[in-house]
Design a protein that fits this description.
The chain has 201 residues and is α+β, with helices and mostly antiparallel strands. The chain has a single domain, classed as Muramoyl-pentapeptide Carboxypeptidase, domain 2 (2-Layer Sandwich), CATH 3.30.1380. It has seven helices and four strands, in the order H-H-H-H-E-H-H-E-H-E-E. A four-stranded antiparallel beta sheet has the order 1-2-4-3. The protein is globular, with a radius of gyration of 16 Å. Bound molecules: zinc ion. Zinc ion binds next to loops.
Length: 201
């Protein structure tokens, strides 16, 4: 994923994983030069190392650049809308059976404080709430907090979902986030055109 462009620093990979998440929302080609410029700076070193301490599995936190098997029984998955989770599991099975592609969930349900952490980090890094909003949704607006969105990895699986997700009712929400899926249509329906980015919704 494009988020991987954040350069490793002295901070732990868990910190990097979360910061990469924070950067996902505007990581598309239309992300703009300001974002590209700031993404290239060594900004992870500006954040306190202990920032992640309060976040745990109960927040839906996915550690260590992490990924979950869709069949896992953890809050990041069990906190999702049951219909969405069932559709994701069904689609992941189909991807494996039909094309040998292994899908993982890189982020699912998140607690409000997890989303708040992501947003606060983005505000700190980008210098304003306005700029941060291009990167991370607020706890009030995030479809991850309501349990109605999942991020699918890895790249080949995300593209498989883009091509075949509609069979299961799953649609890509944002043009710049091929990994982000929501249960948007009835199984077998036609997905609407994705929005440009998270700030367009
Ligand atoms: Zn997402």
């Amino acid at each position: 994923m494009r988020c991987a462009r954040f350069r490793p620093t002295v901070l732990s990979t868990a910190v990097l994983a979360v910061l990469a998440l924070a950067g996902c929302a505007a990581a598309g080609p239309g992300g703009g030069d300001v974002s590209e410029e700031k993404a290239g700076r060594d900004w992870t070193s500006e954040l306190p190392v202990n920032r992640l301490a309060p976040l745990g599995e109960g927040d839906g936190f996915v550690p260590e650049g992490g990924s979950l098997d869709p069949s896992d029984d953890v809050p990041a998955l069990t906190g999702l809308d049951p219909e969405l989770l069932a559709a994701v599991r069904e689609a992941a099975d189909a991807a494996l059976e039909e094309d040998g592609i292994e899908a993982v969930v890189t982020s699912g349900w998140r607690s409000e404080r997890y989303q708040r952490f992501l947003l606060d980090s983005a505000v700190e890094v980008y210098g304003s709430e306005e700029e941060a909003a291009r990167w991370v949704s607020s706890p009030e607006d995030s479809s991850h907090v309501t349990g109605s969105a999942v991020d699918i990895g890895r790249t080949d699986a995300a593209y498989w979902f883009a091509r075949h997700g509609a069979r299961f009712g799953l649609c890509q929400t944002y043009a710049n986030e091929v990994w982000h899926y929501e249960l948007t249509v009835d199984p077998g329906g036609t997905c609407p055109e994705p929005l440009a980015d998270a700030s367009a919704g």
